[in-house]
Amino acid sequence: MRHSFTLAAALTCVGLVGCSGETTNTNTTGGGGSSASGGTGGSSASGGGGGSSASGGASGAGGGASVCPASPPTNGAGCTPPPDNGSLFPDAAHCSWGDDPRPACRTTAKCMSDETWAVKAPDANVCAAPPLPAACPGAPPTSGTTCSDATLACWYESGARCACSGCKGGSAYPVCQTIDPPEWACATPAAGCPSQLPQAGSTCDSPGASCGPSCELEIVCEGGIWNWRQGSCPICASPETPIATPAGERSISELRAGDLVYSVDHDAIVAVPLARVASTPVANHEVLRVTLAGGRVLEISAGHPTAAGGTFAALRPGDELDSGHVVLSVERIPYAHARTFDILPLSSTGSYFAAGAEIGSSLAR
Fold first, then answer.
1. Distance between CA atoms of 132 and 185, rounded to whole angstroms?
2. How many CA atoms are closer than 13 Å to the CA of 134, on its beta-carbon side?
3. pLDDT band for position 181 (50/70/90)?
4. Start-to-end Cα distance in the chain
5. CB atoms within 10 A of CB 233
6. Residue 26's beta-bridge partner residues?
7. What are phi and psi of 17, to 5 degrees?
8. With CB atoms counted within 10 Å of each terminal CB, which end of the chain scores lower, N or C?
């Protein structure tokens, strides 16, 4: 059931976004992660690999013929930008080259709106180590078994990728639930995906296939081409986000575990204590600015859950965020704050009311 909620005070809404990497997390139930440092990635077990793309029908290990040049163009050279695909998620790369299984260790290029190539070479310091270090097991280990070096990542020729992770399940999203000792987290290519990560710009014949290594990089087969896009990791809210409480709206950054907020519990809107509160440092984030009928605005991460079980990424003008709030517009903008926040009410839904609209919590996943 979806609910509308009328707030006593009409305060100005200023937005939502991200819980990634290092997270400070408090709770009243004892569950979830305490603070954890480090990664920015979604699953820490990221990525397969792929051969270099080439024009004229040459094939790489991660895809077929390519619409891209046979070798990386000169930075600033002329190009013809591809048609706008209408996605809210910007392209991470239009073309890629190289045979390293790690996407960060391939040369990439984007054809910019000014019709010039922006070419990015791999970071030599990051990519100096081999994809399969000598410390890795000879074969992919079993997920959930303990390991000792939480910095170790192993990329296998089979396409399996494993990481020794200090986060439960290998994921820092929506919040790293720290574990000690660390454990192996492994992943294999999904159905319809090649064993090695497809090159950006190479051709594909599995429409709708999604082969990205983590929520930070989406690799999707659309229009017969593998597209690399910036991901939409489930992340949280800006510090000023107004949350409905019995004492009126309060900024999300002021709330602490045990504070009362309004939530939906067994189809009733009631005041419940917060089970968990999380805060995370972020950098270079982008969020969606969602304007609702009536003028209130949410600036919220694309991957953040709605109360109905979807994500904000799927919202379009005319959709209902909840039964009392229709979406007028959605646009992607840079995020202006250094930290992000999310809360988890102790209720059957885990939802809460931000700027008067019922939304989900990334901590409930």
1. 15
2. 0
3. very high
4. 19
5. 25
6. 277
7. 180, -160
8. N
Residue 224, amino acid: G
CA distance 337 to 279: 12
- Beta strand pairing call for 178-187 and 217-222: unpaired
- Asked whether residue 208 carries a pLDDT value surpassing 70, the answer given is yes
Bridge partners (DSSP) listed for residue 110: 118
Query: What is the residue-averaged pLDDT of the chain?
Result: 80
> Is omega for the bond preceding 174 within 30 degrees of 0, making it cis?
yes
**Could you tell me the two tokens for 338?**
């250094």
Q: Which residue in this structure is represented by tokens 């991470």?
A: 92
How far apart, in whole angstroms, are the C-alpha atoms of residue 15 and residue 273? 22
In the numeric block, which tokens belong to residue 89? Answer: 């998620």
CA distances from 313 to 212, 221, 306, 321 (A): 17, 18, 10, 12
Q: What is d(CA 335, CA 288) in angstroms, rounded to the nearest whole number?
A: 9
List the beta strands (DSSP E) in 252-347: 260-265, 268-281, 286-292, 297-300, 320-322, 325-334, 339-345
What is the dihedral angle through the alpha carbons of 11, 17, 23, 25, rounded to the nearest 10 degrees?
Answer: 40
- Its pTM stands at 0.59
How many Å apart are CA 233 and CA 42, to the nearest integer?
Answer: 7
